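User: Hi! I have a protein structure encoded as tokens and I'd like to know what sequence might fold into it. I'm fairly new to this, so please keep things simple.
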């Protein structure tokens, strides 16, 4: 029994390591799978994105599109052929949650909001042949997958920056905890639909999930670190850790066995730039 906590920690470490290794492998596979594809018919599309964002975590454990917020950004799509493309995007969106609206724990009264800056590199696979400007292959559903790097900064709905407060005892080293980073990585995947509006203009709808490597987008992960009756309501670091002042040390505050997720859903409009050499014979039909 003495070694049980150590074994549990080792299991958690191995799971996180395997997930991180799998994320890197997926990212590399997404890129290497595109290398053998022929060079004919390549185009570049640049454009903008607008839509919504939401998150899943301790303050919204299972309600998709709960408390959706505005999201926007820009993207570059490199089309290798009518079936495959590589897309890089920067999306910025706000996410938020609260015990009052997230159908979660009723006696915590916790809440947060955060802007998420997402940088993603994904591979897209079109179910049908598609290219912007075609009169024949002008529509297709598609799947995408890859990796994201993102930053976040949780604050309370009243505007207090939460990470510097150490609401789970990180600033005093409670139970060996230390302040978390406000950036992380995520595995990205989703689906969408593409439609060619004109010779140069393309429209796409996408819905993409990000499974992250952090559990602190909402500033909640483990246990309480203060006895409720000893909390000073005038000290933000104390009252924001347990607003109801009704818990004891080590009582469950969050679930550190599950990391947070976030989603971007919306539409993008792009303008196509033809990268084919006009001096070469085109072997791909663009009609």
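Assistant: Happy to help. Inverse folding works backwards from shape to sequence: for each of the 287 positions I chose a residue that suits the local structure. Here it is:
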């Amino acid at each position: 029994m003495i070694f049980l906590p150590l074994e549990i920690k080792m299991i958690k470490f191995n799971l996180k390591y395997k997930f991180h290794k799998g994320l890197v492998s997926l990212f590399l596979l997404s890129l290497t799978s595109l290398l053998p594809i022929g060079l004919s018919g390549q185009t570049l599309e640049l454009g903008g994105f607008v839509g919504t964002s939401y998150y899943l975590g301790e303050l919204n454990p299972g309600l998709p599109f709960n408390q959706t917020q505005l999201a926007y950004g820009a993207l570059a799509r490199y089309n290798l052929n009518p079936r495959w493309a590589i897309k890089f995007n920067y999306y910025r969106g706000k996410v938020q949650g609260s015990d009052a609206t997230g159908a979660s724990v009723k006696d915590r009264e916790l809440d947060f909001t955060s802007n998420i800056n997402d940088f993603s590199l994904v591979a897209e696979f079109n179910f049908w042949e598609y290219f912007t400007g075609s009169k024949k292959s002008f529509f297709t559903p598609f799947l995408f997958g890859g990796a994201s790097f993102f930053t976040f900064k949780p604050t309370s709905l009243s505007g207090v920056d939460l990470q510097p407060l150490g609401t789970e005892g990180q600033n005093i080293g409670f139970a060996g905890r230390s302040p978390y980073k406000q950036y992380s990585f995520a595995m990205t995947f989703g689906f969408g639909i593409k439609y060619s509006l004109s010779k140069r203009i393309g429209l796409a709808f996408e819905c993409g999930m990000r499974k992250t490597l952090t559990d602190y987008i909402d500033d909640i992960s483990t246990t309480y670190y203060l006895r409720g009756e000893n909390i000073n309501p005038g000290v933000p670091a104390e009252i924001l850790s347990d607003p109801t002042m009704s818990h004891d040390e080590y009582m469950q505050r969050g679930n550190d066995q599950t990391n947070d997720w976030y989603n971007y859903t919306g539409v993008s409009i792009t303008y196509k730039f033809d990268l084919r050499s006009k001096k070469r014979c085109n072997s791909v039909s663009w009609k």
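A useful reference point when you look it over: The helical segments are 4-32, 236-239. Feel free to ask if any position seems puzzling.
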